Backbone:
């Protein structure tokens, strides 16, 4: 029906009704804090603040770790109130404007902003990879209130001999939120001084998911294999997640199905990696890496190794809100009490009662299921 997942999602985005506010060229408001880096035109990109004039608790508007349990419509509603400023710059040009954006990304608290756009911001953006946002326009000037930097990130920023990967992992170990680390990474705030550059937001989300996932997996491979089959579940925002841990060495597969989201379609996508990982980018996109990180976090916490199979089904009413939805909802599944089974057949018989897409469809696309069909 669709030649690729990208084409399918593009059609889905076009069907989502969105109302955006009417603005002026001059805005005074707040940023959660948040900075967005576009990818169009790379290695010249558009960077700028995300700001709003609406709401009291602005910080939550760019903190997906706190969105689980909320209605998708509510998240879309407040995200569409976020206005994006766009300032064109080369990825290694850390001029005064870019340095200002880095300070915003490193900020500990909400920041007051006064922005002047070259024209009235218009439009909106909805995507499965990044958080949705509202009107955007080129930004001519921006003034910020007092900014207090988060001290761990400030230290990493000034350590120009620290590799960006090591900075990301160190900040994660200190308990900083994924979203905060990712935004700072996107603005080129970490790494060897000569190597620093802006990273488009879309790419930075996957990069941080991937770096943290690989770091945890390297630890997991040193643990003993679990001694049972474990099934974790979570359902929210017209999505269902079923995660199966199997008593094997580390391997991982993500299977996602879109079932009658806007018609009678049943779209299925899959990607897999064996014990030694993968060398190519997952064709299904950033959701693969977000789910992998969440599952790896669980295994690291229980100090066990396993084969991981993640089923994700999306149903009518599903709204793309970014890959945070995958990461946070798989994390939520990992917090639930698992169903324990002593053998593969019993575990899969249970899983089959929790999925709507015909099981044979999954088998036809899955490497892990093909190896252990029942």
Residues:
């Amino acid at each position: 029906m669709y030649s690729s997942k990208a084409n399918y999602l593009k059609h889905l985005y076009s069907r989502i009704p969105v109302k955006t506010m009417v603005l002026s060229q001059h805005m005074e408001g707040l940023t959660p804090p948040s900075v967005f880096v576009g990818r169009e035109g790379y290695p010249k990109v558009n960077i700028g603040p995300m700001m709003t004039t609406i709401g009291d608790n602005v910080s939550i508007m760019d903190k997906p770790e706190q969105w689980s349990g909320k209605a998708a419509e509510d998240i879309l509603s407040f995200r569409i109130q976020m206005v994006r400023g766009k300032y064109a710059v080369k990825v290694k040009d850390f001029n005064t404007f870019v340095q200002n954006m880095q300070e915003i990304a490193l900020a500990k608290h909400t920041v007051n902003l006064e922005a002047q756009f070259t024209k009235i911001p218009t439009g909106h953006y909805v995507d499965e990879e990044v958080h949705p946002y509202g009107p955007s326009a080129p930004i001519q000037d921006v003034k910020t209130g007092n900014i207090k930097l988060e001290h761990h990130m400030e230290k990493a920023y000034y350590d120009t001999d620290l590799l960006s990967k090591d900075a990301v992992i160190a900040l994660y170990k200190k308990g900083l939120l994924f979203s905060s680390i990712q935004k700072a990474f996107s603005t080129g705030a970490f790494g060897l001084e000569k190597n620093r550059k802006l990273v488009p937001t879309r790419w930075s989300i996957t990069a941080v998911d991937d770096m943290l996932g690989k770091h945890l997996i390297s630890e997991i491979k040193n643990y003993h294999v679990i001694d049972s089959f474990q099934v974790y579940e979570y359902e929210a925002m017209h999505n269902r997640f079923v995660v199966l841990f199997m008593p094997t060495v580390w391997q991982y597969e993500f299977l996602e199905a879109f079932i009658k989201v806007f018609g009678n379609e049943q779209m299925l996508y899959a990607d897999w990696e064996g014990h030694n990982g993968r060398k190519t980018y997952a064709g299904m996109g950033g959701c693969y890496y977000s789910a992998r990180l969440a599952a790896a976090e669980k295994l690291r916490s229980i100090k066990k190794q396993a084969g991981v199979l993640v089923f994700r089904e999306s149903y009518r009413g599903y709204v793309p809100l970014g890959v945070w939805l995958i990461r946070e909802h798989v994390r939520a599944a990992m917090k639930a009490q698992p169903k324990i089974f002593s053998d593969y057949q019993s575990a899969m018989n249970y899983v089959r009662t929790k999925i709507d897409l015909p099981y044979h469809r999954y088998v036809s696309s899955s490497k892990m299921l093909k190896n252990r069909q029942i």
